[in-house]
Design brief:
- This protein is an alpha+beta fold.
- Strands 1, 2, 3, 4, 5 and 6 form a 6-stranded antiparallel sheet that branches. It has a 6-stranded mixed sheet with strand order 17-18-16-15-13-19. The protein has a 5-stranded antiparallel sheet with strand order 8-7-11-10-9.
- Helix 3 runs antiparallel to helix 4 and helix 14 packs antiparallel against helix 15.
- It is flat and about 150 Å long.
- The two termini are about 70 Å apart.
């Protein structure tokens, strides 16, 4: 950034213009690739949907053909025709199966011929297909249920030159030695449309080319009927089947190709779309973006030159004028500059002229100003000296207390010694150390404070401590408990005529909350006053004292409550309960954040 600030304005403007152009170009390129990815994904989904439709159609038609063949193969008349030894009886059965085969052929459009071949050389067909399909009888393996032989050219024998022979072994159902043995072969000669239906023409509705090819790469179905029967390009057919799209160069054009096997009919489905067709729309958008980018760059260049000249020319004139002044030519100091341009440069020229108008006047006032500054500096030094003298070194106070304690010990005034010792500990604790201390450390200071108060009041009240070791190891804000103890002494026990008791408790509850309780059996508060204090604490109001009751000052309580809420959250803090004539109980809640585990305190 410092390097950028050192550049000339023209260089900075050029850098900004280049950055804007780079950002726009990046956005255009990113948008183009994003759109390309979306188009690829949409084409892949469309191809998958189209393939699913074709597979569904093929499976449905195959299922119909398989059922028809099964019905014929295990028909009683057909079985008797194949195994009957008597020629006359076989002729009778042939008449019966003729009607059966005609009816079965009419149930499914595209069945061109049905041929029954027996093991004993007996055969029957509808339209002369016996001599064409008998060649394939021995190609059916015993484990094959129904076999599709792919696309075959049977010449002019049938209305469709390219047909698909489908064969299955016929097994005997007659009881005896030949039960379930092969007694013949059943063939269907079908038009490819009988298997594929209209699914083969779906691709004609878009630029996608969809082919159904057999095991020999012969095209069984295509959007172009003229391609049926021809062989698919070896470059395409040689690639392994994959539902993931791949790019393929063919005849100087790039295609996006997807392939999927259909093992049930010994074939494969191939979808192809030219890359140019796939991205034809986005190519138009790219050309439009290019034209807009060139036009925008030209406009930006013109605007850049206008802005640069509008900024730089007045600046050059101003810099030349300032260089003349810098050379110290007194005659030049009387000249003034007039700049026409943008508002800022006009303000600068006006300000410079005003500055030059004041140079002479400021020169005459220079000595007087220096004298005034010198006097002000002297006064400032005097004030600093006075302030330093008014400061009291905390270490001096602490050392003085130590001296008082030593003198009291020497002279046998043990009360003064104890008070000075406790006060020194409290003073040192308040000005040193961390903001968070253990409850054990805080209790040491509370005990020092209570020692001073008990000396002062001469045993008018006693103090009970009930602290668990788990509680004493918890971290709390420094000087958080002493104000509560002080409040109990001065507002609860000081004015009580009989001996009082102050109880300080600390424990960790099951919900990992540290609860500290300061309870006295002093004067207590009236219900109205208690409600005022509780409401003020709830509002986190520091000034909750009453002008009619100056003895009740709860600034310390509000301060403790605010500190707890600011440190740990609004769910923690202080609550107070009191009964007039019976005493006051203050409870403090905060999270139990453990530091160490110490021995508990129980002094009652």
């Amino acid at each position: 950034m410092s390097f950028y600030r050192k550049l000339s304005i023209r260089s900075q403007l050029s850098f900004i213009a280049a950055s804007i152009a780079a950002v726009i170009l990046t956005i255009i390129v990113a948008t183009y690739f994003q759109m390309s990815g979306i188009i690829r994904d949409n084409n892949e989904r469309y191809t998958k949907d189209l393939g699913a439709q074709i597979k569904e159609t093929v499976h449905a038609n195959k299922d119909v053909i398989d059922r028809l063949m099964t019905n014929i193969a295990y028909n009683e008349d057909v079985q008797k025709f194949l195994i009957e030894q008597n020629a006359a009886e076989a002729y009778v059965y042939s008449k019966k199966i003729n009607s059966l085969l005609i009816n079965m052929g009419n149930l499914k459009e595209g069945i061109l011929d049905i041929v029954v071949l027996g093991e004993n050389g007996r055969w029957y067909d509808l339209y002369g297909g016996n001599k064409l399909v008998s060649y394939y009888a021995n190609s059916i393996a015993p484990e094959d249920s129904i076999r599709y032989f792919g696309l075959k050219d049977f010449g002019d024998m049938y209305p469709s030159r390219n047909v698909i022979p489908v064969g299955m072994n016929m097994r005997s159902l007659q009881p005896g030695e030949r039960f379930h043995s092969v007694i013949g072969t059943l063939f269907f000669v079908i038009d490819p449309k009988a298997l594929i239906g209209r699914a083969g023409s779906l691709s004609s509705e878009s630029a996608t080319l969809v082919y159904l090819v057999d095991g020999d790469n012969n095209i069984m179905s295509s959007g172009d009927p003229e391609e049926v029967g021809s062989r698919l390009s070896g470059i395409i057919a040689g690639r392994p089947a994959s539902t993931k799209p791949m790019n393929l160069e063919l005849n100087g054009q790039t295609y996006v190709v997807q392939k999927e096997n259909l093992p049930e009919i010994n074939s494969m489905m191939v979808s192809m779309i030219p890359m140019s067709e796939l991205f034809s729309d986005i190519s138009k958008i790219r050309r439009l973006e290019l034209v807009i980018s060139v036009a925008g760059a030209a406009v930006m260049l013109v605007l850049f030159r206008l802005v640069a000249n509008n900024i730089l020319l007045p600046l050059k004139k101003l810099m030349s004028f300032m260089n003349n002044i810098k050379r110290g030519d007194l005659d030049k100091l009387k000249n003034r500059i007039s700049l026409q341009g943008y508002a800022e440069i006009t303000v600068m020229s006006t300000g410079l002229n005003s500055m030059l108008d004041q140079v002479d006047h400021l020169t005459h006032q220079l000595l007087e100003t220096n004298a005034m500054l010198y006097e002000a500096e002297l006064e400032n030094k005097k004030s600093e000296l006075t302030f330093l003298r008014s400061q009291i070194n905390p270490h001096f106070l602490y050392n003085t207390l130590e001296m008082v304690k030593g003198m009291a010990a020497v002279r046998g005034v043990h009360e003064i010694r104890d008070i000075a010792k406790s006060l020194g500990q409290i003073f040192r604790y308040s000005i040193k150390g961390e903001n968070m201390v253990t409850l054990q450390t805080e209790m040491d200071i509370v005990e020092s404070y209570m020692q001073i108060q008990q000396i002062r009041f001469g045993g008018r009240f006693k103090v009970d401590y009930e602290m668990s070791g788990e509680a004493l190891g918890c971290l709390i804000p420094k000087m958080i408990l002493q104000p509560l103890v002080e409040n109990a002494v001065f507002h609860g026990l000081e004015l009580k005529e009989s001996q009082g008791t102050l109880t300080i408790r600390g424990s960790v509850h099951d919900d990992q909350v540290l609860v500290l309780t300061v309870e006295d059996d002093g004067l207590g508060m009236e219900p109205e006053r208690l409600a005022q204090v509780a409401e003020a604490l709830h509002r986190q109001d520091r000034d909750i004292g009453s002008r009619n009751e100056p003895r009740v000052s709860s600034i310390g309580l509000a301060n403790v409550n605010n500190r707890i809420k600011l440190t740990f959250g609004s769910e923690y803090g202080l609550d107070i309960g009191s009964t007039l004539g019976e005493g006051t109980k203050i409870r403090l809640r905060m999270p139990a954040r453990r530091n160490v585990h110490v021995q508990g305190i129980d002094r009652r």
